Amino acid sequence: MSLILIKNIKTLLQARDISYAAGQKMRDIGALDDAFLLIEGEKIADFGAMADLPQALAKLNLTEKALTEIDATGRVVSPCFADSHTHIVYAGSRENEFVDKIKGLSYEEIAKRGGGILNSAKRLQAATEDELYQAALGRVKEMVGYGIGAIEIKSGYGLTVADELKMLRVVKRLKQNTPVTIKSTLLAAHALPESYRNRREDFISLIINEMIPQAVAEGLADYCDVFCDKGFFTVEETAQILEAGARYGLKPKIHANELDFSGGIQVGVAHKAISVDHLECTGDEEIEVLMESHTMPTLLPSTAFFLRIPYPPARQMIDSGLPVAVATDYNPGSSPSGNMLFVLSLACLYLKMLPEEALNAATINGARALELESSLGSISKGKIANIFITNPISSYTFIPYSFGQGGQLIDTVILRGQIVKKSGVVSF
Ligand SMILES: N=CN[C@@H](CCC(=O)O)C(=O)O
Ligand SMILES: [Zn+2]
Predict the structure, then answer these.
(1) Lower CB density within 10 Å: C or N end of the chain?
(2) Which residues line ligand 1 (CB under 6 A)?
């Protein structure tokens, strides 16, 4: 079995067994200075202070094992980020809408003119599964370069039975062919197709009677999602779809309260959603509902940045005792970037989160928003060894501080105990 020893680590983050961090506890990032980390096979075997390394090594039979040593002097080592909300299976970009937006059109106005999600749907329907797979694989590699080791990927640009399944088959291939931990979500209720303009109920029936059963029969979906917001799907429609999903064993992770106080948070919590995501329009009432739930509030600051809409009240949420996760929402319309490092900077600057809170939100809380907290998100013995090593930096606060960095901040990424990024190059 392979053995990797990372030694002389300047600071090891999340060095503890934890399943999520909420409220005041988000200020603690479990930092251990002058540390080592031992990886055996796919898993974290041990970690601790450098002073304790000889004892840890004595416990291992080194003569039988090939040992790779990495000197992490001056570097920060962290569990990889878990990006719990993305739409990275898509065809073509939407920079023409970017220009419309600069000229003053809102997201909803662009959508009403046949732009937005319907524009991406047209392009996706014309693309082959292979073309979509190659493009999405490139995005997965790019995201690994930013230190991401787990990704949720949604459908929602297909909008026909065949095309939604085509998207989910691409996600299945990514699950099988990459070392990244991937979860897939059926988001058939992402936008109402033009052909259903005057018969919404027919589209809801199609989702309930065909898309959900077929996606589940092929083993293509882990979760079920609805864009519950003004101009998209109502609370009643959302409830109908989530109930149908539940009958087929799909738990909800939903888009809620991005464009309005839509009731999305309430309907998500009522249906025991694993997460409710976006939450730009959140007030006291919504926070109270979240406080009484196990649902992870998931914030997507690069979307608010790109759409120039108000940021969600993260400070109020955390100060009320809630946990929050952050994710990239990587998609061609509202967040054309999978750069979690930039998301951390936005979380600090505009969500007013402390660096420790932002790092918790992107690691252990992101893992929890994917139900992966028992195997990922912290440095605990027995968890899967998904970790990144930065270039030499002055402190972990440098990560969100140095905004606009590309993946060059991250020197090495290890996924399932294998080095997949070294000296800036991702390969798998
Ligand atoms: N808000 C809904 N869905 C995506 C945007 C999709 C698009 O504009 O293509 C989001 O999460 O931001
Ligand atoms: Zn989204």
Answers:
(1) N
(2) 87, 116-117, 120, 227, 255, 258, 303, 329, 331-334
Domains of the chain in sequence order: 3-79+378-426 (2.30.40.10), 81-368 (3.20.20.140)
DSSP-derived 3-state class of residue 46: strand
Separation of CA 87 and ligand 2 centre (Å) = 6
Q: What is the pLDDT of residues 202-252, one digit of tens each?
A: 999 999 999 999 999 999 999 999 999 999 999 999 999 999 999 999 999
Q: Kindly tell me the burial class for residue 232, based on how many C-beta atoms sit within 10 Å of its own C-beta (0-12, 13-18, 19 or more).
A: buried
Closest CA to 213 of 253, 250, 166: 250
Give 120's DSSP letter: H
Q: Is this prediction's ipTM beyond 0.95?
A: yes
Overall residue count recorded for the chain in this entry: 428
CA distances from 87 to 81, 151, 186, 191, 192 (A): 17, 10, 11, 14, 17
